[in-house]
């Protein structure tokens, strides 16, 4: 029976794969890059392109984690706070206590995964009505703990192994960008070549029908939110590598950029629709837009407004697409 549900979810993905749905984000990115190339001589240079790749890496990692809850018609508002608590715990272990930096990395990723798992448990075992509630709670709890255990003070002076992910280059290419590509390839295999990945799409298509078909919905949701938390921890590791410091207010508002990247990349808030590479394109669009606006000396206030309009437009397209499904 679960095979039938998976086939139906695949049919919904195929239905969503019209030309605009499939290539709209890529076309938008090409148009944006073309316009910025015309407006600024400094945009299409090797240094600036590599800078964009580096700048986009943190949001790209958060976004691929965020894709999973959104595919199940959920959301994870806690990723920014999970990032903060993960890196503060890494700092306490590897800097304050002087323990092995590789242990610090394990702690960073482990705390992220544990907090994500907690989100999944609250959603499935405590029967909270919507992930908005459980992840909103985790967002505040994790942020509060990060501030309390550090006295709101930053931690600096991380060892080279921790800095590697954020500040190393392979030739002209940032290692963080290579890491993003590897992670995205793994997630593409996970979502498209495994039964768990197909069940994620099926749950987003219709959770109750998926449950009745024999899919262990609770187990899948716990996996989804655990992976989202793990990606927040990994994004935090890259962030610390870039700036060689961790601070408890890190990641504030980052969940919004991650959500925006997923939706701009063609995923649906209604669940069951979205792709790995579309999400990467969405994260790249946000990074390119911010970079281009900086090159054009657009003020930060106007940048927020412009990016907000792009997000609203993407959500509106999602609503129109959802209406077309019902016809």
TrEMBL record:
GO terms for cellular component: plasma membrane. Pfam families: BPD_transp_2. The chain crosses the membrane at residues 20-39, 60-90, 102-123, 144-164, 170-191, 220-239, 259-288, 295-317. It is a multi-pass membrane protein. Its main location: membrane. Signal peptide: none annotated. Keywords: Cell inner membrane, Cell membrane, Membrane, Transmembrane, Transmembrane helix, Transport. GO terms for molecular function: transmembrane transporter activity. It is found in: Cell membrane. This is Sugar ABC transporter permease. It comes from Paenibacillus elgii.
């Amino acid at each position: 029976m679960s095979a039938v549900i998976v086939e139906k979810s695949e049919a919904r993905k195929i239905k969503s794969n019209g030309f605009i749905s499939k290539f709209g984000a890529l076309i938008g990115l090409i148009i944006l890059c073309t316009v910025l190339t015309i407006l600024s001589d400094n945009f299409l240079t090797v240094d600036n392109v590599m800078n964009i790749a580096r700048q986009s890496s943190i949001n790209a990692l958060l976004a691929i984690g965020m894709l999973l809850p959104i595919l199940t018609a959920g959301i994870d508002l806690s990723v920014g706070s999970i990032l903060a608590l993960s890196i503060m715990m890494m700092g306490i272990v590897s800097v304050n206590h002087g323990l092995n930096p590789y242990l610090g990395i394990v702690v960073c990723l482990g705390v992220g995964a544990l907090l994500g798992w907690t989100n999944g448990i609250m959603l499935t075992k405590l029967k909270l009505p919507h992930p908005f509630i459980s992840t909103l709670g985790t967002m505040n709890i994790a942020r509060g703990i990060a501030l309390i255990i550090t006295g709101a003070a930053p931690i600096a002076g991380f060892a080279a192994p921790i800095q590697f992910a954020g500040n190393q280059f392979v030739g002209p290419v940032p290692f963080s960008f290579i890491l993003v590509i590897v992670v995205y390839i793994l997630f593409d295999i996970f979502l498209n070549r495994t039964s768990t990945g197909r069940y994620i799409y099926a749950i987003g298509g219709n959770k109750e029908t998926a449950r009745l078909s024999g899919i262990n919905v609770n187990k899948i949701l716990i996996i989804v939110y655990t992976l989202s938390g793990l990606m927040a921890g990994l994004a935090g590791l890259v962030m610390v590598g870039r700036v060689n410091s961790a601070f408890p207010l890190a990641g504030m508002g980052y969940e919004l950029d991650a959500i925006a990247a997923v939706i701009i990349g063609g995923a649906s808030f209604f669940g069951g629709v979205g792709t790995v590479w579309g999400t990467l394109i969405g994260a790249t669009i946000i990074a390119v837009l911010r970079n281009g606006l900086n090159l054009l000396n657009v003020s930060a206030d106007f940048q927020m407004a412009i990016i907000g309009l792009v997000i609203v437009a993407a959500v509106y397209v999602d609503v129109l697409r959802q209406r077309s499904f019902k016809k």
